[in-house]
Amino acid sequence: MAKHTTYFFSKDARAQAEFYIHALGGEIVSIMTHGQLPDASEEMKDKVMHLSLVAAGATFYMTDEIFGSVQPGNNIYQSLEFATEEEAHQAFNRLAEDGTIRYPLTPAFWGALHGQVQDKFDVLWMITTEAKPQS
Question: Where is the chain membrane-spanning (predicted)?
């Protein structure tokens, strides 16, 4: 079983989150910027890497798009977080059948597996595992 979250890629994640809070009620739970990473460039320091928002009682994630332009069709990912690596690999591989792997399912710096795939119906998916405590 997976935990589902909608993940928005945004031109301005903070402004978009504030709009949803105004429209739907809620709050920003957390924000991590690229400036919190080691060796972050001055240009990227204020860009949102991960924002967690609760609006209308639902949790959403957001990020500032930094690798391309945001447009309808590439700005919303369905994010599934699995408890085990086996479940994550199985879901990732099945979604990739006749689709496109946008980012392979590999270990991420925050202690989880992470990958991105576009399925054969053009739906964008992020597949992750629960983050393991860093030692």
Answer: none
Q: Is the dihedral of CA 101, 124, 63, 111 positive or negative?
A: negative
**32-39 contacts: CB < 8 A, separation 24 or more?**
34/66
Looking at residue 63, its amino acid is: T
Give just the sign of the alpha carbon dihedral 54, 56, 62, 64. negative
| Tens digits of residue pLDDT in 29-65 | 999 998 888 888 888 889 999 999 999 899 999 999 8
Q: Which domains does the chain have, with CATH numbers?
A: 2-129 (3.10.180.10)
**Residue 127: strand pairing partners:** 80, 115
Average pLDDT rounded to a whole number, residues 81-109: 94
Tokens of 11: 């031109």
In the β-sheet with 26-33, what is the strand arrangement from edge to edge? 26-33, 48-55, 58-64, 2-10, 76-82, 124-129, 113-118, 100-107
Give the whole-angstrom CA distance, residue 75 versus residue 109.
23
pTM of the model: 0.76
